[in-house]
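Before the break, one more example. Copy the sequence into your notebook; we will annotate it together after we see the structure.
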Amino acid sequence: MDFVSIRIITGDVARLVDFYERATGVPASRPTEDFAELRTASATLAIAGTRTVPLFAPGSARPADNRSVIIEFLVDDVDAVHRKLTGFVEDFVNEPTTMPWGNRALLFRDPDGNLVNFFTPVTPAAIARFAR
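Here is what the structure looks like once it is written out:
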């Protein structure tokens, strides 16, 4: 089994796709106005509109209602990314901080309130875990 993607349901696909394209630098493919994907080498962030929810099960997902999942991106230099996002991201939860497990992390919210973590491994053990 391979983990391939996470999907965010939103009330405004264009706004959220534009946000993630700018925040990550990854261009999205947009096969319909209700669905887009930002593909990286290891996973895909899918963004879908509320009109797609009934295709799975009516009422099974609600936009802007996540309070338990953090979307994470491995970046080369989290401090440089923080400087780039300052003035663009409206809700930083924390500034770049070195975590006990060895990652330097930047936590912020996307326009729908989803938590996003950009991180860079900085200790030898963390670097070894994420060696590319």
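The mean pLDDT is 97. The first strand starts at residue 5 and ends at 10. Try to locate both features in your own notes.
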